[in-house]
Amino acid sequence: MAEVLVLVDHVDGEIKKNTYEMLTAARRIGEPSAVVVGTPGTATKLAEGLAAHGAEKIYVAESDDTVNYLSTPQVDVLAALVERVSPPAVLIPAGADGREVAGRLAVRTNSGWLNDLVDIDGERAGTHSIFGGAFTVQSHVTTDTAVVSWRSGSLEVEENAAAGTQETVEVPAIDAAKSAKVSNRAPIVGGDRPELTEASVVVAGGRGVGSADNFNVVEGLADSLHAAVGASRAAVDSGYYPNQFQVGQTGKTVSPQLYIALGISGAIQHRAGMQTSKTIVAVNKDPEAPIFEIADFGIVGDLFSVAPQLTEEVGKRA
Amino acid sequence: MNIVVLIKQVPDTWSERTLSDGDKTLDRASSDAVLDEINERAVEEALKIKEAGDAEVTILTAGPDRATDAIRKALSMGADKAVHVNDDAIHGSDAVATAKVLAKAIGTVGDVDLVLAGNEATDGRSGAMAGMLGELLGWPSLTHANALTVENGTAKAKRETDEGTCDLEAALPAIVSVGEKINEPRYPSFKGIMAAKKKPVNTIGISDLGLDASEVGLAGSLVQVDSFAPRPPKSGGQKVEDEGDGGAKIAEYLVGQKLI
């Protein structure tokens, strides 16, 4: 069976859930081979999890240079493997870093790039969800290899014990004239809450929250539900909550099981980031707020009385 | 210094966007078209470099006739001239084919030191054009910059994404994509708007770039769209007035849905 490459998404020696989704999707197309690009010693920490989720092979590309240059090490390693094993697909996380790797790899190997997929079948037919979920698009590549960026949170992860045979591969020497050198790397630490794009429940606050301090009402409800916290652009622009939590057209796209919108009017740009959520609950003072047009359950009322009460009710049932 | 700024006209995100039934491409005619907001920041950054020293700023776009509006806006902010790749053959190009067109077009501007672009357009959202162009041109790409300094033949940027921050450094020529926080773009002045009307815009086709119609557009794209469907509109469900028990009502609903 053909090898399907999966670029492992990892931070501080831990695998991100997205990697398991990609291994699950890769198994439909062929035999998953995980590709670990990192500093020496990285793969040892990740091997067990990768094998438990279907990685027959683990290509280990380790070098200190992998953190010293921007995206080039990943592109170089994957391009060499594409050349060697002619995979029907290479799956790469659809975050900012991953899309850069994917776009460059597509150019370098002259492969079609299926960007931001939410599904792929065994015949490599990809499904995209575009314009904030307003349209579903099916597409395929005309090349031997499909470069796929995979949107996190799109697929149920399946465990599947596999060999996880490790093989060391070279990180090609970096041409410094063609690569940006990286220093002072600082990953954003999410804290104890689940990551916004991976969470099954998201509680988000908007302009109606009124201040940065008041966001503790949003956080309180989120914590009772083990949820991620999101914010509308209006809330972020007003300085109530940090930028990386913004949901919407210019922020993140989320598709959780449950999305609770507190004091969010539901402008089209916000809806673009959350309208594919399975269940939407909204609390807003304004009965005419557009968020109610897409909410499965809406309360017209003051979020500062409704949200704490809900937090308490959830607590009783926990 | 010779600076090229890539701009893109996109459907306004405040309008309803859709795809064309015929060739399944973005329906650019049905919604309002605007200069993508992030591009204004790229233009602004180029103008700051020009004002601090000596630079010529060339706007570059690939798009249909009406992309001229976006070009004029960028020129009215203070850019010097523009190159407009306007060719029906480009219509439907995927990201890789688009990158090929833009890379060739950058080559028409002479010895370019720096290319500036937005980090992600609001329509295609591939978010990788700078990296792809770097790959084609053999240049380093410094992406998602929220601060940039260019001196002594070196570009230094502070990169910020959802995944983290870092410092970047590379020798020119280089390509830089800017993020939302890099600056606040200026409004064109009346004088700027008047002056923009007289600034040179070089309109070219793909044959001027040494490209063949089979290499671009739908024919040259390595991705083919098979079908698309609007997502069934989500209709509102229950809406209740809070009578002091709103939180409890939501809890009841969530229990009913087996969500808590």
Number of helices in the DSSP assignment of chain B: 7
Work out the count of structural domains of chain B.
Answer: 1
Uncertain spans of chain A:
none
Beta-strand residue fraction of chain B: 25-35%
Poorly predicted ranges of chain B: none
Which features characterize this protein?
heterodimer; A: alpha/beta; Rossmann fold; 2 domains; nine-stranded mixed sheet; 17 strands; 28% strand; elongated; B: 260 residues; alpha/beta; two-stranded antiparallel sheet; 7 helices
Describe the overall structure.
The complex is a heterodimer of chains A (318) and B (260). Chain A is of the alpha/beta class and 318 residues long. Chain A folds into 2 domains: 3-178, Rossmann fold, CATH 3.40.50; 201-317, Rossmann fold, CATH 3.40.50. Helices cover 27% and strands 28% of the residues of chain A. Chain A contains 8 helices and 17 strands. Chain A has a 9-stranded mixed beta sheet with strand order 9-8-7-10-6-1-4-5-11, sandwiched between helices. In chain A, strands 14-13-15-16-17 form a 5-stranded parallel beta sheet. The model of chain A has no long low-confidence stretch (mean pLDDT 93). In chain B, helix 2 packs across helix 5 (190-196) and helix 3 packs across helix 4. The longest helix of chain B is centred in the first third of the chain and has 16 residues, at 37-52. Chain B has a 9-stranded mixed beta sheet with strand order 9-8-7-10-6-1-4-5-11, with helices on both faces. The model of chain B has no long low-confidence stretch (mean pLDDT 92). By secondary structure, chain B is of the alpha/beta class. Chain B is globular, with a radius of gyration of 22 Å. Chain B has one domain (2-220): HUPs (Rossmann fold, 3-Layer(aba) Sandwich), CATH 3.40.50.620. Chains A and B meet through helix 4, strand 7, strand 9, strand 12 and strand 16 of A and helix 3, helix 4, strand 7, strand 8 and strand 9 of B.
